[in-house]
């Protein structure tokens, strides 16, 4: 069964810290992995998409990596800001392109 | 830039009623996905369409049906609503079929009383 898990479930850090969010998937036959941000009760904002042939993607202060052999992806956030506070979800696409979501990491960045 | 549009944004229904949720994909996106997110849960895939044909089906109850129209918008029809159907329903779209980035709409919050 294809499963995606995320640790930690919650994270609270002071402003300015660099932080890493982890995503693990059970099936290495992943086609792509997408990272999302979700504010409470709101929609999903796509942050980064990594295709299976890629190792990492960068957008501004965000960097996501993908290691298929170990079944892991990480989202690195540099110089965190209070506005980064949200839930971060990773989702993998396998032999069909439906996304299988992780349970999310709830991030709080305090001033 | 144009985003995925969903309507209505909020919907309140009684048990056993029906509901229709609408999704308008980003222009030139031909693939639409529906997801359900229960309270405190991660989104679960329901169903998807590519070029107006059903392309994949997930954990969608038999009481639900969906279709994609010639202008690529999609509708999710929900009948005999149950309390457990209360959730956020997201529509996402992507271009050119499989394995492209999925862009999500703001969601429709359905409350069943």
Write a structural description.
- The complex is a heterodimer of chains A (111) and B (113).
- Chain A has 111 residues and is mainly β.
- Chain A starts with a strand and ends with a strand.
- In chain A, strands 2, 4, 5, 9, 10 and 11 form a six-stranded mixed beta sheet that branches. In chain A, strands 1-3-8-7-6 form a five-stranded antiparallel beta sheet, with no helix packed on it.
- Chain A contains no helices and eleven strands.
- Chain B is mainly beta.
- In chain B, the strands form two sheets. In chain B, strands 2, 4, 5, 6, 9, 10 and 11 form a seven-stranded mixed beta sheet that branches. In chain B, strands 1-3-8-7 form a four-stranded antiparallel beta sheet, with no helix packed on it.
- The model of chain B has no long low-confidence stretch (mean pLDDT 93).
- The interface between A and B is medium-sized, with 24 and 27 residues.
What would you call the structural class of chain A? mainly beta
Rounded to an integer, what's the Rg of chain B over CA atoms?
A: 13 Å
Low-confidence region ranges of chain B: none
Largest sheet of chain A: 6 strands, mixed
Biggest interface, chains and residue tallies: A-B, 24 and 27 residues
| Shape assignment of chain B | globular
Mean pLDDT of chain B: 93
Return Rg of chain A in Å.
Answer: 13 Å
Task: Give me the strand/helix succession of chain B.
Answer: EEEEEEEEEEE
Number of helices of chain B: 0
| DSSP summary, beta strand count of chain A | 11
Distance between the termini of chain B: 36 Å
The oligomeric state is heterodimer
The sequence of SSEs of chain A as H and E is EEEEEEEEEEE
Q: Could you estimate the helical fraction of the residues of chain B in percent?
A: under 10%
Question: Main beta sheet of chain B: strand number and arrangement?
Answer: 7 strands, mixed
Low-confidence stretches of chain A: none
Tally of separate helices of chain A: 0
What is the β-strand count of chain B?
11
Using the alpha-carbon principal axes, give the shape of chain A. Answer: globular
């Amino acid at each position: 069964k294809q499963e995606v898990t995320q640790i930690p479930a919650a994270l609270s850090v002071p402003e300015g810290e660099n932080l890493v969010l982890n995503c693990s998937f059970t099936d290495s036959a992943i086609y792509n992995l997408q990272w999302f941000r979700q504010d409470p009760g709101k929609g999903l904002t796509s942050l980064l998409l990594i295709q299976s042939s890629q190792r990492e993607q960068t957008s501004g202060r965000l960097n996501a990596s993908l290691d298929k052999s170990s079944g892991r992806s990480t989202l690195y956030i540099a110089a965190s800001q209070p506005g980064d506070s949200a839930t971060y979800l990773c989702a993998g696409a396998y032999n069909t392109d439906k996304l299988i979501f992780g349970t999310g990491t709830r991030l709080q960045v305090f001033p | 830039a144009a985003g995925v549009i969903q309507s209505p944004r909020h919907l309140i229904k009684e048990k056993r009623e029906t509901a229709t949720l609408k999704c308008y994909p980003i222009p030139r996106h031909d693939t639409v996905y529906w997801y359900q997110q229960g309270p405190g849960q991660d989104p679960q895939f329901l169903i998807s369409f590519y070029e107006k044909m059903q392309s994949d089906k997930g954990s969608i109850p038999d009481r639900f049906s969906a279709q994609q129209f010639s202008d690529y918008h999609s509708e999710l029809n929900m009948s005999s609503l149950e309390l457990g159907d209360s959730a956020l329903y997201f529509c996402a779209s992507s271009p050119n079929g499989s394995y492209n980035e999925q862009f999500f709409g703001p969601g429709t919050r359905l409350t069943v009383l």
